[in-house]
Amino acid sequence: MQFFIEVLVGGLLSGVMYALVALGFVLIYKASGVFNFAQGAMVFFAALTFVGFQEVLPGWLGLEADSSVVFWLAFLLAFIAMIVLGIATERIVLRPLVNQPHITLFMATIGLTYVVEGLAQMTWGANVRGLDLGIVDEPIAWLMDNYEIGVSKFDLFAAGVAASLVALLALLFQYTKVGRALRAVADDHQAALSIGIPLQTIWRVVWAVAGFVALVAGMIWGARNGVQFALTFTALKALPVLILGGFTSVPGAIVGGLIIGASEKLAEVYVGPFVGGGIEGWFPYMLALAFLLVRPEGLFGEKHIDRV
Amino acid sequence: MLYREAGQFKATYAEDSQIFPIRQDKIGFWVLMLVFGVAVPLLSNEYWLKAILIPVLIFSLAAIGLNILTGYAGQLSLGSAAFMAVGAFAAYNFILRIEGMPFLVALVLAGLTAALVGIMFGLPSLRIKGFYLAVATLAAQFFIVWALVKFPWFSNNSSSGVVTAQDVTILGYTFVTPESKYVLTFLIVALMALLAKNMVRSSTGRAWMAVRDMDVAAQVIGFRLMRTKLLAFAVSSFYCGVAGALYAYTYIGTVEPEGFNLDLSFKILFMIIIGGVGSIMGSFLGAAFIVLLPIFLDNVVPVIFGDSLGAGFVSNFQLIVFGGLIIFFLIVEPHGLARLWQIAKEKLRLWPFPH
Fold first, then answer.
1. Which of A97, A118, A239 sits opposite B319 (nearest CB)?
2. Domain tally for chain A?
3. CA A208, CA A228: separation in Å to the nearest integer?
4. Domain encompassing residue A207
5. What's the whole-model pTM score?
6. How far is A103 from chain B (nearest CA, A)?
7. For A33-84, how does the pLDDT look when each residue is reduced to its tens digit (9 = 90+)?
């Protein structure tokens, strides 16, 4: 039983990390109807930029490498880089493709993935780098002593970050002017345009916010596994989360992430040994697929009605 | 001046519905066939045949497969490489396990196996549409590659999952030289391309296009959705499967499941985007473009920027150029190279008096 709970909690917490990436997808899809395949590449780009600045800044400014000034300055610069990337994407890729079919935009973001990956590695090099957030990846002693359940401090921290990020986004969406405009655009592009909401500004804001989410996700994933090219595969982890939760729902991304994370780990532990293990790669997809057969629009997605 | 259709009258329906209604096109087509079927294998050297021409042909076949599914039937798939893997490993096992299995029969059986797997993964398309389906096809990609690695039976218990293709023998003749392999590939690809062209011109193809344009409307006017969609998945996977078998047998010789990864699927997708979505000819142009581009960049980038930058720079530069071109094509010419070719033909008809 303890083992089961340990696996379950571990799965749920890693699900939070998937949800973090899925969140970026949802934001952009909601606001612009673009299924942004490049989100994984953006996670990689953001993390690499952050670590890269962390490396070069002490030299430029003459500061200690582990001072918090360097950390926050690198964070800020990486965020600015993500904003620039978002604006450039809007200007160069999205604007000429307005009114094209969704599939075209999707394929354009696959192209964007390659560009961003190449750009990131060309600027900062392809070495694997460590990223230290100052949180140790070890079990919480109190839980370990009393209940013999190993829950990583780091995972808990990641979950906390994700929760506060979601809360922040929810506040942004509900209570600010920009948030209202975002929701209006998500509801209906044309109606939003006709009451004077500048679509392109909104898109830029959304890409910048998605860039911020990618930065946070990249830092957490990077601290876990090292900042390396494999970070781009986080997108592939997030996709089943998305189709399970529905493309258009922020809570869906979180709930989907939790379900995928938990079931994936449980399946690996309890089903994996019978078929030779390593099923983590495809199990989430199969789960999502099976689920879609029952509910084609995902858990919280908008029901799609076809009209002739 | 040369490209005129004046004086070519069509008196019967059969004449009107030919693949090449204009005589010059027909001549051009046969010249092209002679050049690539006879002249190229005679004149070309080993490097060109092995590294460029054979892969272009094989990828063209895979691209035709994906084009049938995505371009004609409108079902976006990100798992075409997995179906190539099914074809390659099926052909290997048929030849290995059945005594005296003729190569061409094995090829067809490999295609049919891939088609069967394709139908299985196509079933969700009846319920799921658009992006949800695209993501669902990733399930095929990951599951098939995983299964081929995990169950050693598929690779005849080879420890690393790598299999070496047996010799290709047809009617006692063994294909060893690159020239003979090229001719074999060429004939198979040409035949299948012709079949595909006729398929998309016939009622089957029209049904696919109706479903692509709007499946509810197609259903209302009497197309059977399930049949049409599953047929598209089956035919598409058949083509990918045969392409995969050829990939193993006439191109690289030793294959491993991991070689048929998501990157390869994306590459095939890029081929049809750049070549032209919904065009058989575009599949060839796109495949040629995607195969030639890295070779071109490998040779050109060091010349322009000097050697000092190292291999990492070249590969990153390739990524950027690749992605940039995809975006460029989608913005500037969403119908790809095939459309450019058509525009060129239109221009040629009017040339040199465009008024």
1. A118
2. 1
3. 23
4. 2-232
5. 0.87
6. 8
7. 788 888 889 999 998 898 888 888 777 777 776 677 888 888 899 999 999 9
